[in-house]
Every structure is written in C-alpha cells, then in structure tokens.
Amino acid sequence: MGMAASQARYLGLAARKTNAEYQGQQINQARTALGNQSADLWNQMLGMSVPVAPNTEDFVTTQYSFSDGQNSFEITSMVPSDEEDGYNYTVKYRYFEKEIKGIENTNTNPQVQATLSASDAVSHTITYSDSTYKIGTSTITPTQVSSDDAELRKNLKNTGIISSLDADVYCYELNGAKYYVAGTIPTSASTSVSAKYLNMSNIKLGNTEVTQLTADKIKEDPNLAASLLKIAEDNKDTNISAAIKAAYSASKDWSGDATILYTYVKNGTTYYACQADIENSLNNSAAISPESTIDRQAPMKQYYTAQLDIEKTQTDRALMDDASGTGRYSSIKLKNYNTTFDLKTESTTNEEAYNQAMNQYYYDVQQYDKKLSDINAKTSLIHEQDRTLELRLKQLDTEHNALQTEMEAVKKVMDKNVEDTFKTFGG
Fold it and tell me: What is the mean pLDDT of each run of 10 residues along the chain (427 residues)?
C-alpha cells in the first residue's frame, strides 16, 4: 500500500470512528432522557394514595329520642350552650303528624264512555259595559264556538242546544260550569239569555261505574264534604277546585247550585273528577278505528285524599342529663315543656352515606388500578426502548474497537512507508 493510499485509508477510518463516538453520545443522551422519564413515573407511583375502604364505625351515630305520650320525638341536632339559664343545649327535634292531603293523579288511559244530554235552560242576566260582560258580580268571557270544533258541535246538536252543526253558538264559564247560548251574545246594557250546559250521564271509565255528586249528596255526608274541600284547598288552580266551590254555595249550606263532580272507586281508592277534565278526555281522542271512541283519549286528571305523615320540627332549650356517667344522656328537660322526659338511645348507621362511600371507594380503586396499569405500561415501554438503545450502543462499541484496531494497523504501515522512503539514502 502506497503512502497516499494509506493516508486516505486512515482518514476514512478516523471519520468512521468519530461518527461512531457521536452516535454513542446521542444514544447515551437518549438513555438519560428515558431514565428521567422512568424516575418521573416512579415518583408518580410513590405519590399515589392507596384507596381505603370506609369503616362502618365512621357512619354510626347515637340517636336520642323521647315521647310525651302523644308524639314520638327524634333529636336531630344538639348544640352546646353556655347561657346561664340552667339549660346546657339548644336542641332541634322532629316528629310526624298525620294530615289529610288532596292529591292529584293522572289517569293515562281513562277510556271515558258517556251519554251526553242538555240541561234545562237557565236564565242568566248578562250586563255589558266597557267591553266587559258580567253575570252578577262574576266577570265572564263569551267566546264563539269554532266551526273547526266538530266533536263539540256534534255534541251540542245531538243534545238540542243548537239546531244545526253550522249554527252560531257562544260559550262562557260560570262557577266552574261551561254554559252555551244559541245565537249571539247581545251587547246591550242588561239582557237575559237562555243558557244550557252539557250534562253527562251514564259515565263509565272502562268498566268502572261513575256516579255524579250533587250538592244534596255532599250536604248529607260531612266526611265527603271535608274531603272535597281539602282537595279544593290543595289543588287551587285546577278545574276541580272551581267545581267544588260551585257546589259549596256562598252561604256554605250546600244549597242551590248543582255541582258537576263525579266519583268512582278504582283499586280500592275513591277518586273524584270534574266534568271539565272528563269532557277534555272524551272530546280529545284519536281513535284507532272509526268504531272506537275510547282509544287514545287524552289523559284525565283525577283526585283523591290520603293520610300522610308530615314531618314537623321544633327548636327548644334543653337540659341534657348524664346521670349514668356513661357518656350518654339519660334524660332531657325542655324549656317549653318544663317537663323531664326519659331518653331512648339507639345507635344508627347511615346506610345511604355508607353506600355512597363504598361506591366512591370502588370508583377510587378502579381509578387507582387504571393509573397503576398506565404507569406500568409506560415503564415497560421505556425499558424496552432502553434495551434497544443499549444493544445499539454495544454494537457501536464493537465497531469502535474494530476501527481503533484497524487504524493502529494502518498507522504502522504509514510509519513503515515513511521510514522506508526517507531512510533510503541514509543507510
């Protein structure tokens, strides 16, 4: 090998050796970065809190209760007090009283079947002033029955209130009843009109018999009257409230007005309904077949009374006495009662709060396991990448050693060439 060739070979080997060293530095930097990532994951794992199942003892409370002979009381709050009045606590306690409530319920499939008839004509004196209509002191709003209301017009014709389907007819509401006047409503100062209302008879809800309630029937039964008045009181903005008030005359003696209330028994419960709600279901149905008039009727409001336990609360100053020395109070003296009552003590577990805590624990365990699994997966990937880089670094080390050996060999050849060349004439 000539001197020039040896020199070129040596330079090429030096370049390859430098490149191997550079790649080795890059791999070491990459392994350092992976090491930092691995350390960060370990720190995250060390910082994770292991979920701990809730202890049932944490949800157990001491419940105090007492009785005055009529009601049972349960103490819900005890706040220590340092007022100098002989009472060491301010307590809040609750009890339950039974109350009759008038409840609204929806009959989603009423299946109303009824025979309609017109009432005998009644005379109403209508006064008109400044675009306002009144019957006595009651303001009414007469409206013309729309020609599109085919079902109502058919009922009005079948009951003789109007003579033809396209006849003019006006409607107004008075004391919960809808009255119809054939023709037009006059606008003179004071006019008497002949008014009728649709009276439904032979009503059934499916196979359930329905009975009309008259003022006389209500007057004869004080319990029925009390139930209806409770329904009216608890459902003030409904049709049935107006119907009940129409039955309950101004003098409150159940005389005069006939009411348009109905009653029926269904599944052992006595229900009440008013004509307006029954009519609404009867006149608003989408029959599946032309022969059916009870399919897909509008839901109907119905009402009943129920005896409910209503929670009551009171707050009072109290003297709590621990005569037994066990840490639990044995008696209570209330300021408002000025009487000492024996306390009953019961340990109760808040099951709802405990179940919520357990659900949170199960959720936390799932989150912990997922986070731990994610860290392990990332750590495994980092170790795999590090092993790949380590293998590549060993390959570079082997290559670097080979290059170093070959460079030393080439250098010896170059030294021999120099010696042979420059010592030719020196021998």
Answer: 75 84 88 90 89 87 85 88 83 89 90 85 89 90 90 87 92 84 86 86 89 79 85 84 67 49 91 87 65 75 91 89 73 84 84 91 93 91 90 88 85 79 60
Three-state secondary structure along the chain? CCHHHHHHHHHHHHHHHHHHHHHHHHHHHHHHHHHHHHHHHHHHHHHCCCCCCCCHHHHEEEEEEEECCCCEEEEEEEEECCCCCCCCEEEEEEEEEEEEEEEEEEECCCCEEEEEEECCCEEEEEEEECCEEEECCEEECCEECCCCCHHHHHHHHHCCCCCCCCCCEEEEEECCEEEEEECCCCCCCEEEEEEECEEEEEEEECCEECEEECHHHHHHCHHHHHHHHHHHHHCCCCHHHHHHHHHCCCCCCCCCCCCCEEEEEECCEEEEEEHHHHHHHHHCECCCCCCCCCCCECCEEEEEEEEEEEEEEEEEEEEEECCCCCCCCCEEEECCCCEEEECEEEEEECHHHHHHHHHHHHHHHHHHHHHHHHHHHHHHHHHHHHHHHHHHHHHHHHHHHHHHHHHHHHHHHHHHHHHHHHCCCCC
Tell me, rounded to whole angstroms, the distance of Cα 371 from its chain centroid. Answer: 32
| Rounded CA separation 134/385 (Å) | 93
Phi-psi region of 176 (alpha: psi -120 to 50; beta: other; left: phi over 0): left
**Contact of 309 with 97, CB cutoff 8 Å:** yes
Q: What pTM does this model have?
A: 0.52
Distance CA 264, CA 204 (A): 9
Give the Cα separation of 318 and 338 in Å (integer).
9
Residues 170 and 156: beta-carbon distance below 8 Å: no
